[in-house]
């Protein structure tokens, strides 16, 4: 990207298709680039370049596109990838699926900004996982044993007790023979506001809220945000584990 592009707003959006913006007459743009979109009301929204051709740049919006006026949208290409500000102050806080505080607390003072799409860790260079995490859930401990360093996804449907199961795992999980407490990065997608409050209240009752970082994508949030939520959670977990030696 040319440096001049980073300081310019392009008013060349010619079509909105769902959560996608089609922008023409732009050069020097990179795939995966972070985009800032200024609306007719002065509100700033966020997107990402997902396709580049000779004539059209396709931008994936991470927020709602309803009510946007095509001719009034100002597009600014930042020349950056999507990054999350990280800090130990994240412990005990609740963030949206794209890392914005939603608990009425202040913005964190970042120690660093980490690319959420950074390269993965070479599995060969990792220490072989040997320590068992005891969750207290027999079907997990007996049939799908969780080891320290692994992730545990919970996929649920309507009417299933996923809230109780997730809260129970958070309260009971431990490494047998060790008194070390876990730091928990909790990511939930497509839940209601009431469910978010229930999770947070459960963590408070357990006395675990001070060691939990929550990333919550609500049911009314844009569905596309759910593609980013796991990346934000995993990046935060790696930061706490590798830069601060936490068991996550």
UniProtKB/TrEMBL annotation:
Residues 15-79 form the ATPase F1/V1/A1 complex alpha/beta subunit N-terminal domain. This is ATPase F1/V1/A1 complex alpha/beta subunit N-terminal domain-containing protein. Pfam families: ATP-synt_ab, ATP-synt_ab_N. The lineage of its organism: unclassified sequences, metagenomes, ecological metagenomes. Residues 136-246 form the ATPase F1/V1/A1 complex alpha/beta subunit nucleotide-binding domain. GO terms for molecular function: ATP binding. GO terms for biological process: ATP metabolic process; proton transmembrane transport. InterPro entries: ATPase_F1/V1/A1_a/bsu_N (IPR004100), ATPase_F1/V1/A1_a/bsu_nucl-bd (IPR000194), P-loop_NTPase (IPR027417), V-ATPase_su_B/beta (IPR022879). Keywords: Ion transport, Transport.
